[in-house]
Design goal:
223 residues, 6 strands, 9% strand
């Protein structure tokens, strides 16, 4: 798509700015639709394009996310960017806006984390402490610094004395940041140590590949 070139020109930090915002805004959209360049999109595809328009028109400058613009973003501009109105409602639109605004207020690392792309500075600083496992550092820092923007904590479970987040928005963000790192020629190793996405589309794949098995095969016949 044409709009991707604009994001790519921002460099790695700018791309991660956009990736994080896009992931945070991506959740079930209901019957909402989005029109862009005379084509209509829905669900995740529509949300991705709407996030791009929001980022481009209201939140960014030549370097990526402008935190002052995010602070100044009002709800009406947010609705306009997502083409939301009485005839085209978007599920959870108020919560999406609140999470985005919360990003500018709460996400800080050592007092200098002013935008999502700055996670790269911390990531590369922490690499030696993480055994050069970029994926582990990425997951740790994204989780540590994003969890506070929600009013409640995401699902967290303990495995082998390690706290593991299973909320798919955080996982999507982690995998998307890793994708950006790889495209900018940073090696990402041991990705199999990351948890699988808790996403319904993966259910059939995980069952077919025997990653998950049912205790009672009778349940396979249930709808």
């Amino acid at each position: 798509m044409k709009y991707l070139h604009t994001i790519e020109e921002l460099g790695l930090k700018g791309i991660i700015d956009f990736v994080v915002i896009s992931c945070l805004l991506d959740a079930g959209a209901g019957n909402w639709k989005y029109t862009y360049e005379n084509k209509t999109y829905d669900r995740s595809e529509g949300l991705a394009i709407a996030s791009y328009v929001l980022f481009k028109d209201y939140l960014s400058d030549n370097n990526g996310l402008n935190i002052n613009k995010l602070n100044d973003l009002d709800f009406i501009k947010f609705l306009n960017a997502f083409q939301v109105n009485d005839k085209n409602p978007l599920i959870g639109v108020e919560s999406r806006y609140e999470v985005l605004k919360s990003l500018s207020k709460k996400m800080k690392i050592k007092g200098k984390f002013d935008r999502p792309g700055d996670i790269i500075d911390v990531l590369f600083t922490d690499l030696e402490n993480c055994g050069k496992k970029i994926n582990s550092c990425t997951a740790k820092n994204i989780f540590k610094n994003l969890m506070s923007i929600w009013p409640v904590n995401p699902d967290i479970y303990t495995y082998n004395n390690t706290r593991i987040p299973f909320w798919k928005l955080l996982q999507w963000t982690t995998y998307s940041v890793i994708d950006a790192l790889e495209k900018h020629h940073h090696e990402v190793i041991d990705q199999d140590e990351l948890t699988g996405l808790s996403e319904y589309r993966n259910g059939g794949l995980l069952l077919d590949s025997k990653v998950y098995t049912l205790k009672n095969d009778v349940n396979l016949e249930k709808e």
